[in-house]
Amino acid sequence: RREPLALINLKKKNEETGEEELSSRLNHFKAKATRHIFLIRHSQYNLDGRADKDRTLTPLGREQAELTGRRLASLGIKFDQIVHSSMTRATETTEIISKHLPGVKKVSTDLLREGAPIEPDPPVSHWKPEAVQYYEDGARIEAAFRNFIHRADVKQEEDSYEIFVCHANVIRYIVCRALQFPPEGWLRMSLNNGSITHLVIRPNGRVALRTLGDTGFMPPDKITRT
After folding, report:
1. Whether residue 169 is found in the same domain as residue 105
2. pLDDT at residue 138 above 60?
3. How many CB atoms lie within 10 A of CB 95?
4. Coiled coil: which residue ranges (predicted)?
5. What confidence score (pLDDT) does residue 95 get?
6. Which domain holds residue 186?
7. Which of 14, 20, 38, 166 has the highest local Cβ count within 10 Å?
8. How far apart are CA 62 and CA 56, in angstroms?
9. What percent of the chain is modeled with pLDDT above 70?
10. Are residues 108 and 23 both part of a single domain?
């Protein structure tokens, strides 16, 4: 799913046909469609819950999810799927959003669960997980990036629109990686609950960021970052 030339075994290239054959084979591996990725941060949730199952959405969080769902529906886009983190707050946010997008299939994954992607630079004083957490979570979140953020499959004929409901750390890391920015800078960005981040992946592999953490569709008194 990367550069087409990297998908061809050049050692097996027919020397007699040379560049003509290479050009023909490259066309076979080139993507034709654009992927639109909508990264949604979960809504506000109960911070006092000890276990994940107890960290359910607050009443305000449920309102936020409703507002996000309405905003996505108002775009008039035919979404292909909703992929969401298996954590409770992301699952509940997805259920509320999906009511506004009937017929769009939902897929749960552990890859998008919250975690510590990479040690931030510069460091912060208010958040210092143990070093082992970066090794455990970082590999998983990097796997999520590689699994979900790539150019369209060569068989895809039309542009696609996908929603990913997950967490602030995951989204910030993905944005840095997708834009080829130093991933250690992920903690310099802030995302509101229920916010929408829109990435566009062109057939040539280039990525553009259209919106980052948009909550302009929410009344000011409904906006939180907890």
Report:
1. yes
2. yes
3. 17
4. none
5. 98
6. 34-222
7. 166
8. 10
9. 94
10. no
- By DSSP bridging, strand 160-166 and strand 105-109 are unpaired
pLDDT at res. 17 = 54
173 and 122 housed in the same domain: yes
Q: How does DSSP assign 157-219, residue by residue?
A: -S-EEEEEEE-HHHHHHHHHHHTT--GGGGGG----TT-EEEEEE-TTS-EEEEEEEE-TTS-
Question: Per residue in 157-197, pLDDT tens?
Answer: 999 999 999 999 999 999 999 999 999 999 999 999 999 99
The domain tally of the chain equals 2
> Residue 52 carries which DSSP code?
G
What is the helix (H) or strand (E) element at residue 20, kind and residue range?
A: helix 18-29
Cβ atoms of 136 and 115 within 8 Å: the answer is: yes
| Residue 44 and residue 136 in one domain | yes
Where b means 16+ CB within 10 Å and e means fewer, 166-203 reads bbbbbbbbbbbbbeeeebbbbbeeebbbbbbbbbebeb
